[in-house]
């Protein structure tokens, strides 16, 4: 478990305990905590740090990319099983979506995306036709996030859309820290006939500033064991939960 994962779970950490747990110096731990503080996601104290609770705070893409890597890999692999040759699919921004894209190399599909890392990963693949959404680049998501992006997706009709989110609260609402990102995700959701949400277990029980959808909006939710009962109870007849760490 990483330092950030411990912060998400316990809401606070102690430098001495982390140094002992990871077998590193206190200075190393303080440097890592200082990095988190610069992003606005923790406040440091003399002996440790605590997680900030701001609804508009979002970790950087670089930080998110090293969290729950194995879980995202499994979720991405499970999601790729839903992609068939000939599909036109939309891929949202996010580190879990980037993990998903790694399993598409041998597919014969059209991919529409606003994610620059996904573009860089899939460009030049023989069987993949790639369309890049326009807009203003936003570094925390490493993608195009603006009204121009939303307008582009308002005119798209794809077979499947694969979405991410930053938080899913107890009421089944999907939320992200920034309003422009929420607006783009709403447009992406409307643009796909079949709607698939990719969300690791760290996303559940969290609420951020801007809502962009609900559990009931999706055909598939791909996650892991441990999804809260309060959310599974909200799954209606057309929403199927797929657990990436459980045999089919």
Automatic annotation (TrEMBL):
Limits of the HTH deoR-type domain: 1-51
Xref: SMART domains: DeoRC, HTH_DEOR
Species classification: Bacteria, Pseudomonadati, Pseudomonadota, Gammaproteobacteria, Enterobacterales
Name this polypeptide is given: DeoR/GlpR family DNA-binding transcription regulator
Coiled coil segments of this chain: none
Any GO molecular function: DNA binding
Bilayer-crossing regions: none
Keywords carried by this UniProt record: DNA-binding, Transcription, Transcription regulation
Keyword Metal-binding among record annotations: no
Organism: Citrobacter freundii
InterPro entries given in the database record: Carb_Metab_HTH_regulators, DeoR-like_C, DeoR_HTH, NagB/RpiA_transferase-like, WH-like_DNA-bd_sf, WH_DNA-bd_sf
Gene3D superfamilies given in the database record: 3.40.50.1360, Winged helix-like DNA-binding domain superfamily/Winged helix DNA-binding domain (1.10.10.10)
């Amino acid at each position: 478990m990483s330092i950030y994962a411990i912060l998400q779970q316990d809401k606070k950490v102690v430098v001495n305990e982390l140094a002992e747990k990871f077998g590193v110096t206190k200075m190393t731990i303080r440097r890592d905590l200082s990095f988190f503080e610069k992003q606005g996601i923790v406040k440091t104290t003399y002996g440790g740090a605590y997680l900030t609770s701001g609804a508009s705070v979002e970790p950087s893409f670089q930080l998110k990319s090293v969290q729950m890597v194995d879980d995202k890999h499994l979720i991405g692999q499970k999601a790729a099983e839903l992609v068939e040759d000939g599909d036109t699919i939309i891929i949202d921004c996010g580190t879990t979506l980037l993990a998903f894209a790694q399993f598409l190399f041998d597919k014969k599909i059209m991919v529409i995306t606003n994610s620059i890392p996904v573009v860089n990963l899939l460009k030049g693949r023989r069987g993949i036709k790639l369309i890049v959404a326009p807009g203003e680049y936003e570094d925390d998501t490493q993608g195009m996030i603006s009204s121009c992006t939303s307008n582009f997706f308002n005119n798209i009709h794809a077979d499947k859309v694969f979405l991410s989110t930053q938080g899913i609260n107890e009421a089944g609402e999907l939320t992200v820290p920034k309003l422009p990102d929420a607006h783009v995700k709403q447009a992406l959701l409307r643009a796909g006939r079949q709607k698939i949400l990719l969300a690791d277990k760290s996303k559940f029980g969290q609420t951020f500033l801007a809502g962009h959808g609900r559990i009931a909006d999706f055909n598939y939710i791909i996650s892991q064991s441990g999804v809260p009962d309060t959310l599974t109870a909200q799954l209606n007849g057309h929403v199927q939960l797929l657990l990436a760490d459980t045999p089919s």
